[in-house]
C-alpha cells in the first residue's frame, strides 16, 4: 500500500513501506502510542493526547517571557500563539505571509486586549530572509526566552529553495538551524541576565521514522531522480530531532541554562497538508479516531515550552505531552554530529557564494 501520510495508525500496521522494518522495541513503542492516542489516557506527566494547550498551561504565568514562534499565524502555531499570549507571554510571530499574520494578531487581540504580539517577516527557505529577520528582531532590543521552531512545509512536489536546496530540507531544517544559531547569543544573554531557563522547541513528527534508507541522504539532498516527497518530509523531521539533540549536547557542555527538545504534535488537518488535501480528507474518513483537534495538537508544544516540570529536561522527544523514544536514527549521536557539521558547512558555503 502506498502511504498517504505517516501517522501512528500506519506505523502500527507497518504499511509505510514494504522495505521498512521495525525492531521489537520500536513496535512496542508504537503500540503504546496508539493506545494512549485512542484512549486519551494521561501519561506520567498527567496529560495525554486529549489534553489541550490551555489545559497543559493552566495557571502558568508567562508574563516574564518573550517568545519567537515560526509559523505562528495558522494551524497549531496560531493556537500556540493564542495560548502563550493568554498566559501573558510576549510573542513574536515569524511569518512568511505578514498579511495573514497580522490578521491572526488582530483575531487574538479581539478576544484578549492584553495580548502582546508582534509580527516580523521570515521566509525560512531563504537564508537571507533569516538574516534579515534576526537583524530586525535584535534591533527591537528585546530579551528572548523561548524559541519555537514550528513552521514547515509537507509533501511538496520536487522544488528548490531560493538558495538552491530541496525545499522541505531547506524550510523545515536548514532555515531553522540557521535561525537558531543566530539567536543563541540573545538567548544565552537573556538566560544569564534573568536567571530564567531558556527553552528551544523543535516541531518534528512521527514521520521521522519514515525516511530514506540512510536516514539523511547527505550526498543526494538535491537529487531529483531519487526524490520522494514523503521520505523527504520524513528526512526533514528526522533532521529536526537530530538538530535538537546535538544542540542540547553542546549547550550542556557549555553549562548554558537553555534546554532543547523536539515534539510530535499529532495528526491534525491544517494548511500544512495543502499539497495533498484531497487525499488527506479521504484518508481521514477511515482513520478519524487518530486525529487531533488544533487545541490538542498545540498542547505538546505549549507543555514543553512552559511547564515547570520540564525544568532542566533537554535532548528529549515528546509526544502527547509525554516523553517518548524516537527512532534509532533520531538517537544516533554520530549522525546528529554529522548533520550539524553538514548543515553548518552548507550554510557557510551558501552565505559566501
Automatic annotation (TrEMBL):
Molecular function GO terms recorded: oxidoreductase activity
SUPFAM superfamilies, A to Z: NAD(P)-binding Rossmann-fold domains
This protein's record includes keyword Oxidoreductase: yes
EC assignment: 1.1.1.-
A family per Pfam: adh_short
Keyword Transmembrane: no
Similarity annotation: Belongs to the short-chain dehydrogenases/reductases (SDR) family.
Name used for this protein in its record: Oxidoreductase
Organism this protein belongs to: Helianthus annuus (Common sunflower)
Taxonomic lineage of the native organism: Eukaryota, Viridiplantae, Streptophyta, Embryophyta, Tracheophyta
